[in-house]
Amino acid sequence: MSSGHVPVLFAETIGVLKPQSGDVYVDLTAGRGGHATAVAQQLGPTGRVVLFDLDRGNLDYSGDRVRAATGIEPVPVHGSFASVARELDARGIVANLVLADLGFASSQVDDPARGLSFMREGPLDMRLDCSSGMTARDLIASSSERDLAELIARFGEEPLARKIAAKIAAVRAVAPIETTAQLADVVRDAYGSRAHTSRMHPATKTFQALRIAVNDEMGALDALLDSIHRAAQRIHDGRPSWLAPGARVAIIGFHSLEDRLVKQAFAAMRRDGLCNEITSGALVCSEAESAENPRARSAKLRAVMVDSPSRVA
User: Fold this and answer.
1) In terms of DSSP bridges, do strands 75-78 and 275-277 run parallel, antiparallel, or are they unpaired?
2) For the chain, where are the alpha helices, taking DSSP H only?
3) What is the model's pLDDT at position 308?
4) Model confidence over 237-278: pLDDT tens digits?
5) 95-101 vs 24-27, strand pairing mode
6) In degrees, to the nearest 5, what angle opens at C-alpha 21 toward C-alphas 35 and 310?
7) Which structural domain, as residue segments, surrounds residue 176?
8) Are residues 254 and 287 in the same domain?
9) d(CA 60, CA 37)
10) Within a domain: residue 264?
11) Which of 250, 223, 307 is nearest to 273 (CA)?
């Protein structure tokens, strides 16, 4: 695609959101605008689109794409979706449809300068917002061996976390680890002979862990889910909220840490009588999509509808 990214679970996402003319759509991870443009095309001239993204370049790109395809002037928010309640309240916007695709754009992965992939030589950056924050290089240089081991074990679910952290500490004592290739080699060395039998690249889980830590991805997701729960509670209590009664909320996760949080948060909302489940568990990609877009294989889509007490089953 000319956008440099193929959105995952595309038909399934549009199917659970069910956009209608005049809806207000909030895309919490606009990326390259694939989902946003498709939804916006069904909103009509009275619809509104709000786009969040940590990546300024992607935010501008997706905004241009929505505008060109629909004539709708999107509201851009350069920042984390953790602040969605504050940002929408400040603008007096109430959402009917909300989507958070927790993956990152192929254009980001494929750019060596971002340092997100061990498949491409580049600086150890890993920030989704390149304008601020600590890089992966900084994190590796400043963290204790123990903290690195805990980080890699927690966010990467890597059984060899302690061994990898020890190897990182030994190598950085001689010279800084500054590139993706250097880090990938360090992890491979820590794996030893297991690297030859591993079903995935030995550095996969370590890179995931560092990226999650650098961007505080789990903290942001926690804050988002709490904000959704609070908004649903306000609707239940008959108070104004950044979500409209009947709002549909869809979240696409890509690894077990994300999906577990989303599953638990939506289950808690159902127990509290604040929502209906739309997806009946998680939707996953078809065999055809998996073959066409391998990055979709780990995607899981969950969606709920928040509503007033009289309509929640």
Assistant:
1) unpaired
2) 10-17, 34-40, 56-70, 84-91, 106-109, 136-142, 145-156, 161-172, 180-191, 204-214, 217-236, 256-271, 287-292
3) 57
4) 999 999 999 999 999 999 999 999 999 999 999 999 999 999
5) parallel
6) 100
7) 130-214
8) yes
9) 13
10) yes
11) 307
